[in-house]
Amino acid sequence: MHHAQSAPTSLYSTAGLRKYLTREERDRFLVASWSATRPDVRTLCLTLVYTGCRISEALALTTADIMVDERAIAIRCLKKRKPQVVVREVPIPPVLIEELQRIHGLPSAGHLQRLWPLSRGRAWQLVKEVMGTAGLVSGPHASPKGLRHGFGVHAIRSKIPLNLVQRWLGHARMETTAIYLQAMGSEEREIAARMWM
Known about the structure:
Elements: H1 23-34, H2 39-51, H3 55-59, E1 66-67, E2 72-76, E3 87-91, H4 94-104, H5 120-133, H6 144-157, H7 162-169, H8 174-177, H9 186-193
Antiparallel strand pairs: 1-2, 2-3
């Protein structure tokens, strides 16, 4: 029986390993990203961590997809199997806009070019190198997909409404986004701590 690739139903692998970056791991990855010697690797890593996009979606981005005035990136969803192009606009922090402008020469009037002319395999390898610099131990969480899941968990813990997280991640179904509610946040730990007093 053939199963289509479905949305994850858990933030843990079948072996019980976590699939997302924790806040502390995400912070270390951000520091390592800002320290990357290659400016294009820096902007790629920052875009992945600040948008939660898939690595293939990041590699498809062009200079025209960066909405400087709106402080957003228009990401074409490459996973959907629909005849029409589905684009989602994801807000990004001013520091990322400034870095994209500085490194990639935005805005480039009428000149479309890919921001990162890399193969998927090479981009994955470069992101993993930054993860190594950040001291992330090997596992399902230490991957570009782990960055995407980390974005979802971070958004939920930052009290972003679930429907916005769904839109920013480009999920077709709310059930897919709801997996990020599984991660235990500080509020849950505080409630549990009341039992121990």
